[in-house]
Each structure stands twice: as structure tokens, then as C-alpha cells.
Write a structure and sequence with these properties.
single chain, seven-stranded mixed beta sheet, 421 residues
Length: 421
């Protein structure tokens, strides 16, 4: 049923993107809540069945953790495994380094997409560094009574994750340095540049997936001949589907359902707070995006030309232009032929609203319906503004009003005289 509903939801893409986003968000929340409740309910039934039948570990089990006396050596040597997270600081420095180039600084000053790329690259490296540090500080898992075997498995896991995260930072940094080359040389980041950027940013995903499979394969190979495997019965802490162990000081623990996923310890206040904060932030972001897209789709573009300023309103952002700042205005039969790149706003094939940057045009703002003509172009000292309307003759009226206001209201005092423009 959910599969059919998901397919049906996609049909709204051919109407309004905002409507699709709202319906899709509702469907996504329903699927996520339903899947989690189904998983947790089934898990609790299995736990109750285990307790009822007295299966292994259900009566009088000794709950063992990785810092228990069974393998104190493994826990003591935890920090000797893996590469240092400080390597990520080096990659953060390499991301900052291009800011020394004048052209790169100019691009960052004039283009918001440059700052977005910079901040994303820097933030990703910091996230990798934080995850790296958490993995190294995570207590070791006890698999066997054989100390050397435990050390070998835990060392394998932490070494592989260390190298994988460092490789992730390497490719993330390489992707950013790739785009900074075009910032410096051409002051333009084209579609082909972004394609290579996306490919480089995708490589860490394959590295992480490969690391997971490699760890699993090598771990099984190490443990296959072990006759003293150690099983930890901590089901009581997972009986409701989430981890809740008041005796465990850890905030982040490995998930029972997915070995390379991590979850919070709900017995700790910080675990409850982080879980609630995650839900609230997710809901707020979904609502904000839905409201914003709804406004963009259903708020018409309007222009009001007064004696001293031009006011432009739309569903995304409003704008005011002083009449004195208008250098020229003209009506165009279509948008100038150029390669336009959206900096912010919306470009859904029906409307172009927000800040754009053209390879030839440079900085510009658009408030246009793609299928409507003519287009009013207003030139100022800072940027170019393109506007049109669905109403027939509206753009022509705006143009005539701007010309009228410029001719009748602009008085310039010069050398004690008055010059009429």
C-alpha cells in the first residue's frame, strides 16, 4: 500500500512542486513512523517470547560490557588503534588556503554559491574529524576470551574506519580545490565543473561501503576458528527497540539492528534531549521548506513603481530599487541567451525567482515566469533585474511608468543650475 502511495505521490511533480513536497513529506513521516513502530513492536514481542520460554541468556544472564574484567587488555589498548583525527585539521587548512588568492576572494565576495561550497567543504571535514574521534574513543567489543583475537578484530575495525574517514576528507578537500581552480582562473563554475565535483564528493560513500564489507569479511575470517566466542546478552537494554542502559556511561552506542549504525543511550538525559532535538529540527525543516515552496508557487510576482522607488514582491524574496539607481530599462522578447546558474531561490521550470549568475550577464536577479513574455530588464550599477508577469500588458506598463518617473522626477543640481534628465 505504501509503495502504491509513494508512486501516486510522484504524480504531483507534474502539477506544482510545492504540493508534491507537502504530500511527499506527509507520506514520508507516515512511512517512517509506521516502519519504526512495526520494528519496535516486533522486537518487543520477540523479547517477551524469549523470556517466556527461558531461552539462552534470559534467566540469570551476566550482562557483559567491553570494559569488563573478561578482557581488560583490549579496553586498555583502545587508544592505540587507528590513525589520529588530527589529519582532518590538515585538510581543513587546505580548504582555507585558496582564500589567499585574490580571484578566489573576489568570487567568494560576489557569489553566494562560493561561500556555500566553502562552508560545506569545511563542515564535512569537521564532521569526519568528530566521527573519527568518537570511533577511536569507543570502547572495544569483546568477541572472544582470546585476548589477541579481540585485539586483532578491534584494531582491524578502528584502522579501517580511520583510513576510510581520512580518505573521505581527502576527496572532500579535492572536490573543493577543484572548484576553486575555476574560481581563480575563470571566475565561473559551470555545469561540467559541478559534475566532477559531485563525482568526487560521492567517492567517500563507496569508500565507506567498501570498508563495511571489508571489515565484515576480515572479522569473520579472524573469528572462524575461534572456539571461545564470547556472547553478550544485553537484550534487556534493547527490549523496547531502543537502547536504555542506566549503568552505561556512553551516550552513543552501536545499533543492534545495523552494525555500522549508531544510536543514543536513552537512559541518559543527553540521549533523550538529542533524540527530541533531532525530531523537532527535522519537523521544523520540513515545515519551513513546504511553506517556502508553497509561497513561491502560489504568490504572484508584482511590481509597484512609485515616484522614488520600485517595489518587487514575490513568494521568495522582495526587493526595492531606488529610481535614482536605475541606469536603464528595456523590454526584451526573451531572456538573453546565456548560461545562468541559480545562487538562491527557485528554478522549477515554471518560475525563476531569486539570485542568479550568468556566464556573460554576471550577477542578476530574476522574477520571471518561464513561458511568459515580454521581459522587463532593469539595469542598476550593482546588478541586472529581469521581471515579467502572467498578466498581458503588465510588463509594458511597468516599463512606461519607470521611463516616465525617470524623465519627470529626476532633478540634478549641478554648478548652481538645474538640469532636467
Amino acid at each position: 500500500m505504501n509503495l502504491l502511495a509513494g508512486i501516486a505521490v510522484c504524480g504531483f511533480c507534474f502539477w506544482y512542486i510545492s504540493v508534491f513536497m507537502i504530500v511527499w513529506s506527509i507520506w514520508l513521516v507516515e512511512v517512517c513512523i509506521g516502519a519504526i513502530l512495526l520494528l519496535y513492536r516486533t522486537h518487543r514481542k520477540l523479547y517477551d517470547l524469549k523470556m517466556k520460554n527461558g531461552w539462552i541468556g534470559s534467566n540469570g544472564s551476566k550482562i557483559m560490557t567491553a570494559d569488563s574484567a573478561v578482557d581488560a587488555t583490549v579496553s586498555a589498548q583502545s587508544e592505540k588503534m587507528g590513525m589520529s583525527p588530527l589529519w582532518h585539521i590538515l585538510f581543513c587548512g587546505l580548504i582555507v588556503l585558496p582564500c589567499l588568492l585574490p580571484q578566489v576572494r573576489l568570487y567568494l565576495k560576489e557569489s553566494e554559491d562560493g561561500w556555500i561550497l566553502f562552508l560545506c567543504g569545511f563542515a564535512v571535514n569537521l564532521v569526519f574529524a568528530a566521527v573519527h574521534a568518537v570511533i577511536l574513543r569507543t570502547r572495544n567489543t569483546v568477541y572472544s576470551e582470546d585476548v589477541k583475537m579481540n585485539l586483532a578484530v578491534n584494531r582491524l575495525q578502528k584502522n579501517v574506519w580511520s583510513w576510510s574517514l581520512i580518505a573521505g576528507s581527502l576527496f572532500n578537500t579535492g572536490a573543493y580545490l577543484w572548484v576553486t581552480y575555476f574560481m581563480d582562473e575563470k571566475m565561473w563554475i559551470g555545469s561540467e565543473v559541478y559534475i566532477v565535483y559531485i563525482i568526487l564528493e560521492s567517492v567517500p560513500i563507496f569508500i565507506f561501503m567498501s570498508g563495511v564489507f571489508y571489515i565484515k569479511k576480515k572479522r569473520n575470517r579472524i573469528l572462524q576458528n575461534n572456539e571461545t566466542l564470547h556472547y553478550v546478552d544485553d537484550d534487556i537494554y534493547w527490549k523496547n527497540g531502543w537502547y536504555s542502559n542506566p549503568n552505561d556511561k556512553r551516550l552513543i552506542v552501536q545499533d543492534w539492528a545495523c552494525s555500522f549504525n549508531y544510536t543514543t543511550n536513552m537512559a541518559r538525559p543527553a540521549g533523550k534531549i538529542s533524540f527530541a532535538a533531532g525530531i523537532v529540527i527535522t519537523i521544523v525543516c520540513l515545515l519551513w521548506v513546504c511553506v517556502l515552496m508553497f509561497r513561491i508557487d502560489f504568490t504572484p510576482i508584482k511590481v509597484s513603481v512609485g515616484s522614488d522607488k520600485i517595489e518587487i514582491t514575490s513568494g521568495y524574496s522582495d526587493m526595492e530599487i531606488d529610481i535614482d539607481e536605475v541606469q536603464s530599462a528595456e523590454l526584451l522578447p526573451k531572456l538573453p541567451n546565456d548560461e545562468y546558474k541559480r545562487v538562491n531561490g527557485s528554478d522549477d521550470g515554471q518560475k525563476k525567482i531569486g539570485k542568479f549568475r550568468g556566464k556573460k550577464t554576471g550577477k542578476c536577479r530574476m522574477y520571471i515566469y518561464v513561458e511568459c513574455t515580454p521581459i522587463l530588464q532593469i539595469n542598476t550599477s550593482d546588478e541586472i533585474i529581469f521581471i515579467n508577469s502572467k498578466e498581458k500588458g503588465a510588463a509594458e506598463k511597468w516599463y512606461e511608468k519607470i521611463v516616465q518617473e525617470k524623465q519627470s522626477a529626476l532633478l540634478i543640481f549641478k554648478n548652481g543650475g538645474i538640469i532636467m534628465s
